[in-house]
Design a protein that fits this description.
By secondary structure, the chain is an alpha/beta fold. The protein is built from 15 helices and 10 strands. It is globular, with a radius of gyration of 20 Å.
Length: 341
């Protein structure tokens, strides 16, 4: 039997669940906090990677989805719906399948990594692609859930944010206290909002550092981005639903929200795979790219970088520019000659 009970059971006393709440869980949470010695040497601080890509559907979204779907079942919902750049759709579809609910997913056409889309499809979601951005998809989901008996499970659902607090609690438990800085990618901005909420609930105040992709950086620019563009599809969002929460997290913690380029994101993405042995999706690496870019502003103390999704979510980016290997004869001589030994 798995000794880990899942987040709603583990943090029962801190979350809005009761004996009347059906617990819909895939045993999410309890993700590793990995020392990153190479990164630590680069920034002259102890750096740890909170790898939420090993949650059941491969991203941090499961933390909030277990609570959102459990409460939807408790309230008698027949279906859930979300707009998504990929990870939310995979998580919503999986937890809906576990709960026996229908799931509607509305996606921006052509802007979702196939690894994520395949998950939503295999979990049985009804997937609809719209000619528009994530923000257009979210607006449509808001309308359909307002008119029909369907529960919206994007991060505007308060239970999503409440559930995602658990990552902050796990970090503090592992460290014996908060880090000096907790760095996160910022797309729809629910995760940085939730982490700050979690730390505050525990009476802790690390500095919250958030990083947007330069081509999708509305908070940094101070205005929505009509056509966000970045290779980091999970944070390709032009008008974050949790904008105010992210700004509050930054300002109340004495933190920052800055932009990093696609080149910086890809450099960090490759570095953590090659030097730390951790394969995360490109958007995840925005947290690492930001810490590297703004290392001169780091305070003393441990630095935590959240990696939000697994690298297998976006295999296409991993293979960019990598030719398929030409076969060689299956002989030792051919192998040695091929390797130049």
């Amino acid at each position: 039997m798995n000794a880990w009970p899942g987040l709603l059971t583990r943090y029962w006393d801190r979350l809005p669940v009761t004996d009347a709440t059906p617990i819909v869980t895939l045993l999410e949470g309890n993700t590793p906090l990995l020392p990153a010695p190479h990164l630590s040497s680069l920034v002259d601080r102890p750096v740890l990677l909170k790898f939420d890509g090993v949650n059941p559907t491969g991203s941090f979204k499961d933390r909030g989805m277990t609570l959102a779907v459990s409460k939807a079942v408790e309230e008698g919902a027949r279906a859930v719906a979300c707009a998504s750049t990929g990870n939310t759709s995979a998580s919503a579809a999986a937890y809906a399948a576990k709960a026996g609910l229908e799931c509607l997913v509305i996606l921006p056409a052509g802007n979702v990594a196939l690894g994520k889309l395949s998950q939503a499809i295999r979990h049985g979601a009804r997937v609809v692609a719209v000619d528009g951005s994530f923000d257009d998809a979210l607006e449509l989901v808001r309308k359909v859930t307002a008119e029909y008996d369907i529960v919206l499970v994007n991060s505007v659902n308060p239970y999503r944010i409440i559930g995602q607090q658990t990552a902050a609690w796990e970090v503090s438990e592992a460290l014996g206290g908060p880090p000096a800085v907790h760095a996160l990618p910022v797309g729809n901005a629910g995760n940085i909002t939730a982490h700050w909420k979690g730390y505050r609930a525990a009476g802790e105040t690390p500095r919250m550092w958030g990083f947007q992709a330069a081509g999708a950086a509305p908070i940094v620019r101070g205005e929505p981005v009509a056509r966000p563009e970045t290779i980091a599809t999970a944070i390709r969002i032009g008008s974050p639903a949790s904008w105010a929460g992210a700004v509050a997290a930054r300002d109340e913690s004495g933190g920052i929200i800055e932009a990093v380029s696609d080149e910086q994101i890809l450099e960090a993405y490759r570095l953590i795979a090659a030097r730390e042995g951790v394969f995360a999706e490109p958007a995840s690496a925005a947290s690492v790219a930001g810490v590297l870019a703004f290392r001169q502003r780091l305070p003393e103390g441990p630095i935590v970088c959240t990696l939000t999704g697994h690298g297998l979510k976006d295999p296409g980016t991993a293979l960019l520019g990598v030719p398929e290997p030409d076969p060689i004869p299956a002989t030792m001589d051919a192998l040695v000659a091929h390797l130049g030994w």
